Amino acid sequence: MVTRPSRRALTILDSLVGRGVRVDAVVLDRGGLRPPDMVRRTRGVWRRGGPADAYRRMRRRVTRAMSRRQRAHGQRYTDYASVVHTVSDINSEESRRLLESLSPDVVVLGSSRILKPPVIEIPTWGVLNAHPGLLPAYRGVDVIHWALRNGDPLGVTVHRVDAGIDTGPILARRTYEIEPGDTVGSIKRRAFALAGDMMADVVRRIAADEPLEEMTQDRSASRLYGRMTPLQRREVEEGLRAR
Description:
Elements: E1 2-3, H1 7-18, E2 25-29, H2 35-74, E3 83-87, H3 93-102, E4 106-108, H4 117-120, E5 126-131, E6 139-140, H5 143-150, E7 154-160, E8 170-176, H6 184-207, E9 224-225, H7 230-241
Parallel strand pairs: 1-2, 2-3, 4-5, 6-9
Antiparallel strand pairs: 5-7, 7-8
Helix pairs in contact: 1-6, 5-7
């Protein structure tokens, strides 16, 4: 697995190991955004939500980055894999050499930055991602929020990773329902659990050399979503409470 320290990664690992899938190694990406990327993202947040929102997000990002360092040691990834490596940037030359030395057949993503082609091309079978939205309609970030806002079905898609953003061939899709009393948080937890189950099923089939039907994404039905503003997030939560 390649991931940043996260609850989502641990949920997927738990499902993989619980279904008898051997995890040979975990590579933790502890790095943050490069300064140019951080500047671009901050400018975008400033335009969408104003200076107050930009400040809140920057403060939250710094706090999250600091706690991520602690979680990298505190969360017991060794419960799932005997080999755990830590890198500062999964796309760096050092990280690529590490992955090449591991010679993986399949790489499973947890919570990860966008991988570059030299990394994607390393595993023999490919890189797999469990995306918390129904592709191709919901690519990008905050897709659970956007689907709730648009009144569309919720679901998870397992796909092979390519050089685009959530554009690779689809291997599995499954929907789930909103339950009484749901919040965005409870819906996310359900999506992560489903993502783990689906990923475990796909990896087991690959290991057993069972045929997998890959579906090329329909570009005409594709849309890339960006981050929601705080106001839009509040509207989504209020809509859930009003159901």
